[in-house]
UniProtKB/TrEMBL annotation:
Organismal lineage: Bacteria, Pseudomonadati, Bacteroidota, Cytophagia, Cytophagales
Name of the featured protein: Uncharacterized protein
Length: 69
């Protein structure tokens, strides 16, 4: 599993009143499952877990995004 810092999410959520400061939260974008079939027609299925962790709060907000094509 690869974990990437999703700094773009801070820009998306910076307008949220729940988190007035974008740097008050740490964002991790985790690629949970990537499967691809190279035969024609190409089929790609992957799901992403986005974890929102506030530095001053112990609560964890997890968003699960699944995309099938």
């Amino acid at each position: 599993m690869k974990t990437l810092q999703a700094n773009a999410l801070s820009q998306l959520l910076s307008g949220n009143n729940v988190y007035p400061k974008a740097d008050a939260a740490r964002f991790e974008l985790q690629n949970e499952n990537v499967q691809s079939i190279s035969r024609a027609p190409k089929i790609v299925h992957f799901s992403l877990n986005i974890n929102l962790i506030a530095s001053n709060n112990t609560k964890l907000i997890a968003l699960r995004i699944a995309y099938a094509n």
